[in-house]
Amino acid sequence: MSDSGAARQRRLAEELEESGLVVAGTDAFRALLLEEVDHVVRPDVHERRVVSSGTILEPRSDPATWERGTQLDILRGPADQQPLPDARRFADGLSSWLLRRTDGTTEWMVFNRPAGSERDLVVLATVLDATIVQRHPAGSVRIVGPFGVLRWDGFSWHHEPPARTWIDAVAMSAPHGDAAVIEDLLEFAIHDLGSMRIGALLIYRPHDDPGPTVEERLPTPPPLRITTATHLAPLRHALAQVDGAAVFDAEGILRQLGVRLVPSNHAEQIVEPIGGTRHTSARRYSHDDPLATIIAISEDGPVSVFRNGEVLAHSHSDE
Description:
Layout: H1 3-18, H2 27-41, E1 45-46, E2 49-50, E3 53-57, H3 66-70, E4 74-78, H4 84-88, E5 96-100, E6 106-111, H5 118-128, E7 131-135, E8 141-145, E9 148-152, E10 157-160, H6 167-170, H7 179-193, E11 200-204, E12 214-215, H8 232-239, E13 245-248, E14 254-261, H9 265-270, H10 277-288, E15 293-297, E16 303-307, E17 310-314
Parallel strand pairs: 3-5, 11-13
Antiparallel strand pairs: 1-2, 3-7, 4-6, 5-6, 7-8, 8-9, 9-10, 11-15, 12-14, 13-14, 15-16, 16-17
């Protein structure tokens, strides 16, 4: 590597560390990771088209478990016969991937369907026990692994910790509902909404009483269930088109959509504003409905969780 390339990668390593990336493993693995991240941040361009790519680094789980765990048909084969720049041409980061190990071996991985969304990458990284580096055709850059997700917006890195690290703080006791439903709501908020910069409010109410006053502005939505994977695409599509909150019942079924939250006078007096209007509304509503869990997703990606007027968890690294 040239001196300028080495210096660039040192700066990149510092940026990633400052953004919250803690990489376990050998020096060889860290060097491999930096090489891949440098490649997606400074991508190849052909006829004014920025080239997408995807690499899976150092998977440690048993390959016999991969298809069942990812629900993908996976075709694998050696790619060592080509120089790395040539091998990269065939890895689109959706259906076709490059698999690299620190021992120098390189493989192809081809899936029977595209698996390039952030949710897909989290599943892949978990099942393969690997770190994934992707430049999506839409231009987004992601690093996914045990540390969570890092996203590059063209100027800086944003770190989303793994949703499982939030669960102890968010699903701490039975009165607040089903921990599995809350975890699915968090996964949806982080990887389906935040990753696509869809601002939203998700309210999980684990009880059947009427609750605080809200202004219903849209008809009753279809009963989409947050725990059913096939229901997530239409739910995400709807949330991208409406303002207001989406309200889910104890089983994670969508019951109201686009509602305007109306805080009580008491909440307005004692609950301090936080962030923008969406986060302040979420915090004050949580005061009025203390058993509910409210997840606020900013348009620029970060996610915050409120209960009983307090912030339980957030992905704002500077707070």
